[in-house]
Amino acid sequence: RTDETQEARNPFELGTLLLFAALFAVVSTASAALVGQFGSGSLVASSALSGTFDVDIAVLSALRLADQQIAVSAIGNAVLAALAANAVGRLSLAISAGPAAYWLPLVGATVLAGAAGAAAFLLIPPF
Which residues of 15-49 are buried (b: 16+ CB within 10 A; e: fewer)? Predict the structure, then answer.
């Protein structure tokens, strides 16, 4: 194993910010179009799909639709679907790319987080 030093990168580089803005615009437009065409049920599907790759964009896109007469419960379900899809995507990458010593603790932490989220979803009454 070699000890290589890596230069720190600025997280606010213009290229990174432009990529985030472009992805946000595409996902937001697609989510709004799907909701307009198929109703609020399509929001969960589009959030899960986009959340597989980037949960921030999926969540922000779902929250942006709150002013378009979408039920808060539908937006909440979309956010949960995005988070769950992102967790499954991360686990899939970890299992395919790393040794079991790396991904087994990640599986345990994800299962615990999922169980806590499911318990909160089931136990906390909707408002």
Answer: eeeeeeeebbeebbeebbebbeeeebebbbebbbb
The model's pTM is 0.74
Largest CA distance in the chain: 56
Cα 81 from Cα 77, distance rounded (Å): 6
The answer to whether 51 and 78 have CB atoms below 8 angstroms apart is no
Burial class (CB in 10 A: 0-12, 13-18, 19+), 117: middle
Q: Look up residue 1 and give its two tokens.
A: 């194993």
Tell me the residue type at 119: A
Tens-digit pLDDT profile for residues 66-92? 887 888 888 888 999 999 999 999 999
67-101 per-residue burial string, b: 16 or more CB within 10 A, e: under 16: eeebeeebbbbbbbbbbbbbbeeeeeebeeeeeee
Closest-CA residue to 25 (of 57, 3, 72): 57
